[in-house]
Design brief:
The chain has about 110 residues and is α+β, with helices and mostly antiparallel strands. The chain folds into two domains: about 50 residues; about 55 residues, SH3 type barrels (Roll). It contains three helices and five strands, in the order H-H-E-E-E-E-E-H. Strands 4-3-2-1-5 form a five-stranded antiparallel beta sheet. Strand 1 and strand 2 form a beta hairpin. It is rod-shaped, with a radius of gyration of 29 Å.
Length: about 110
C-alpha cells in the first residue's frame, strides 16, 4: 500500500510542476525586458547618435578625443582626422573613432549658423 501511495503522490506532484513551468520562466523574461529597456536600448541610441556625429564631422569642427585632447579638425580622411591642437597649433592625426564629442563651443556655433 505504501508503494501505491508514493506513486499517487508522485503523479500529483508531476501534474502540478508541469503546469507551473511557465511561471518559473516568467520572472526571467520580465528581468530580460527590464534590462532591455534600461540598458540595451539606451546604449543603442547613444551608439546611433555617436555614429551620426562621426559621419557629420567636417573641417573646422571643434572636437574632443577619448584621450581628452581638444582640437579643431583641419582635414578628414576615411579612418582618421587631422586636428590642430592649441596652444602651439600642433597638427596631430587621430583615429576617427577616438573622437567622442563635439566641443561645446562648436555645437553653439553650428546651431546659430544653421
Amino acid at each position: 500500500m505504501h508503494g501505491l501511495a508514493n506513486l499517487h503522490v508522485t503523479a500529483i506532484l508531476a501534474q502540478q510542476s508541469s503546469g507551473g513551468g511557465a511561471l518559473v520562466w516568467l520572472p526571467l523574461v520580465f528581468i530580460f525586458v527590464i534590462f532591455y529597456f534600461l540598458l540595451i536600448l539606451p546604449q543603442q541610441r547613444r551608439q546611433k547618435k555617436w555614429q551620426a556625429m562621426l559621419s557629420g564631422l567636417k573641417a573646422g569642427d571643434r572636437v574632443i578625443t577619448s584621450g581628452g585632447l581638444r582640437g579643431t579638425i583641419i582635414a578628414l580622411r576615411e579612418d582618421y582626422v587631422h586636428l590642430r591642437v592649441p596652444p602651439d597649433n600642433l597638427r596631430i592625426e587621430v583615429n576617427r573613432s577616438a573622437v567622442v564629442s563635439m566641443a561645446p563651443g562648436a555645437q553653439e556655433e553650428t546651431k546659430t549658423s544653421g
